[in-house]
Amino acid sequence: MNPFDRTPPEWTKKAVHALEFFCPTCRQSSLAAEQVWMNRRSPVYGHDRQRKWQEFYHCQCGCDWWAWSSDRPPNEFADREPLNEPDNFFGYF
Fold this sequence. Notes:
This protein is an all-beta fold and 93 residues long.
């Protein structure tokens, strides 16, 4: 299953809106989902003019849920320093 398919899978039709970014039934994170589909065809723009879309998850407990991409918790790697590229590694720079 491709999470970026244009056609939504059948299981998304019964998905419930999760108010927090985890399964509302078993509270597992989105990383534990068995299937994922992102509704990138219909972005919504928030009051800050940032684009967001629906992310659908089929959890291993059987619950189908969705949340806004803007509700995703911060990435654990977001505050890390970028890797430094070696200076003039091949002599091209």
